Amino acid sequence: MLSSRSINRIAIAMVLALTPTALALGQESLLPDSDASFARMMMLIASGDEGPTDSGSIDEADEAEANGRDGAAGENDSAGVEDETPEFTPIEIFDPQVTQATTLTIADVVASLYRHYPKVIEARQEPAVARGELVAAYGAYDTKLQGYSLNEAMGFYENYRHGIGVVRQSWWGTYLSAGYRIGRGSFQPWYKERETNKGGEFKLGLGQPLLRGFAIDPQRVAVFQASIDTFAAEPKILQALLDASRDAANSYWEWVTAGAILQAQQELLTLAETRGEQFKILVDAGKFAEIDLILNEQLIAERRGKVLESQRKFQASAFKLALYLRNDVGNPLIPPAQWVPRQFPAVTAPPQENFNDQLSAALARRPEPQLYQYQIRQVELDRRLACNDRLPRLDLIGEISQDMGEAATSSRDKGDFQLVIGVEGEVPLQRRKALGKIQSTTAKIRQLTEKLRLQRDQIATEIQIARNALELSSRVVDQAEVSLEAAIESLDRYSFAFERGKVDLIYLNLLETKANETEIKLIEAQRDWFDALADYQVALGLDPLDQAMNVASLPPSDLPKAGRTLLHEQQPDDVIDPEEFESDWEKHTAPIE
């Protein structure tokens, strides 16, 4: 029969033998915390001179029955349970060899977006499209080469006619033509003008609108509208950059958040796994009840499930971020887990500026009002053209011609210099086309004006919402920090009480879960602040890359580092005074009178 002191020596020897295995379950950066936990449990073993409790002993028959149910060959129940545990490999989020300088920043994502994001590249083609349309619009003023060759080779009148010339429309609607023609053979008496002298005829022509088409015409409207499109190309690029950068920022902060939450869930799991190794030693030493070991195994399984769910969300966020983060050839680049920053940047209060000044600057920078203004100018050109179409068409016509060479007929009626001048007009009596166009363009201008007014109101609302969200989100971060500190302090004290048998594992699990949830709330509060900051910057129309570089240059947050909350250095016994704790615990457990 072994004495209690002998049992303690055996338990301590088992602890020392199993220490490498227990420590290997945690990450390298978390080893000091695990050592602290083992030190406390070894103190519990060394101080247990009262002897093992009945509930902590396990006889050989129970071992054989448990191993028979599990179908595994092991030395005890604990080995059987461990053999049944599915293989579990957590993602290493924070590699000790990865420095802060090698982590992925928001500036890296936005810079990649500027270079390779398809929607941004698509928007950058707008200037080329607009310039091409402008060149096409100027095509209405191209010099046109015209020609014909007509032959009547059979019939009573046999003749041939050939002609060539150039025609061009000027900017003010004038039509200019110059050409040469020749007509030989016998012609019908009513078509004698087709006949020329043997050397042919040179002719110059002119047509000048006097009313409709003089001040403005469809060709000039097309040029003006195409020119406006060239100016509208830059706001379209800016709009694509603002929209894409906001989505990229949201995806980036979601990825950082998912990585931090995954790390927090792994911390919670590490607590249970480390405690499970300690429980196995204590159960073997007769210091702990087997039911506590089974309960802890249940907690391990539940927490592994949460880790797996967090891994799923983290990997999904990485896939989504790859839409904006691309390699040198423009293909999506899935960021590895080691690129996750260890901390958010510091949450800093934005400078307080006058709202009206911010709104005026935003309206000047934002692309949406500019695009609406350009659309209004284009429709105004259509309206001017419709007003001009109400006028009658009245054109000045002028033509000079001179036949060359020998006379084609004995009458010699083709050799003199000829001048034709006059006017030609036309007017639709109802003028419905022009009046209808005026009505529709006037209504379109009103529509666009209201859209512009609404857009300005929306920009003002976006700025107000973003400012409000930014201010309140910073307060939420502060309160989440206070809540986390209180949760960690409560967990420290109840862990101290658990080591002394004053609370059970179920209550300790509730406190650990609560501390984990509080840590996640702090992480999400920081994410919400940076999402609000991205919305605020977009609402003001600021350059996304400049703002991303400013955020990336912020110092790391002084809030608790990921991986240093639940697994932080616990308070030693000389900090929590046992006598003071006992007195406080008696007050805590005393019945309310």
UniProtKB/TrEMBL annotation:
UniProt lists compositionally biased (Basic and acidic residues) regions at 584-593
Signal peptide (from-to): 1-24
Q: Does the keyword Signal apply?
A: yes
Instruction: Identify the Gene3D superfamilies for this entry.
Output: Outer membrane efflux proteins (OEP)
GO molecular function terms listed in the Swiss-Prot or TrEMBL record? efflux transmembrane transporter activity; porin activity
Recorded hits in InterPro entries, A to Z, give: TolC-like
What cellular-component terms does GO give this entry?
Answer: cell outer membrane; efflux pump complex
Regions crossing the membrane: none
Q: Which UniProt keywords apply?
A: Cell outer membrane, Coiled coil, Membrane, Signal, Transmembrane, Transmembrane beta strand
- Bias kind Acidic residues: ranges: 572-583
Return the PANTHER family for the record: OUTER MEMBRANE PROTEIN TOLC, SLR1270 PROTEIN
Q: What is this protein called?
A: Outer membrane efflux protein
Species source reads: Crateriforma conspicua
Upper lineage is:
Bacteria, Pseudomonadati, Planctomycetota, Planctomycetia, Planctomycetales
